[in-house]
């Protein structure tokens, strides 16, 4: 990973892990979201959820992708391949 990419990743990660302001927390509560320790990442996920629940197909696919990443704890096992010599000599 290039140095600029590392800096961008680190900065974005820090930004997403910051706590939400009280006004942002109240806005989420007024919409019915009771979330403990809400961060900017939480706000992004709520926005993605709202888009998906409105029928946005790309948001639905993204949510499915995120959820499947968390549930795919087991590594994929390769299936055995059997080579059959079916050419008569």
Question: How would you explain this protein's 3D organization?
Answer:
By secondary structure, the protein is an all-alpha fold. Helices cover 58% and strands 0% of the residues. It is built from four helices and no strands. The mean pLDDT is 85.
Question: Quick recap of the structure?
Answer:
By secondary structure, the protein is an all-alpha fold. It has one domain. Helix content is 58%, strand content 0%.
The outline comes out as elongated
What is the total tally of β strands? Answer: 0
The string of secondary-structure elements, in order, is HHHH
Specify the structural class: mainly alpha
Largest sheet: none
Mean pLDDT equals: 85
Rg on CA atoms, Å: 22 Å
Q: Give the tally of structural domains.
A: 1
Put simply, the count of helices is 4
Helix content: 55-70%
Strand residue percentage? under 5%
Uncertain runs: none
End-to-end CA span: 53 Å
List keywords for this structure.
89 residues, mainly alpha, 0% strand
Write the layout of secondary structure elements.
Blueprint: H1 3-16, H2 22-30, H3 40-53, H4 57-71
Helix pairs in contact: 3-4
């Amino acid at each position: 990973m290039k140095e600029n990419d590392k800096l961008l990743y680190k900065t974005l990660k820090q930004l997403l892990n910051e706590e939400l302001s009280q006004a942002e927390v109240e806005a989420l509560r007024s919409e019915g979201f009771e979330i403990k320790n809400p961060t900017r990442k939480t706000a992004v996920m709520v926005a993605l959820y709202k888009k998906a629940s409105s029928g946005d197909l790309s948001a639905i696919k993204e949510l499915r992708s995120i959820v499947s990443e968390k549930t795919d704890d087991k590594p994929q096992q390769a299936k055995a391949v059997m080579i059959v010599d079916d050419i008569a000599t």
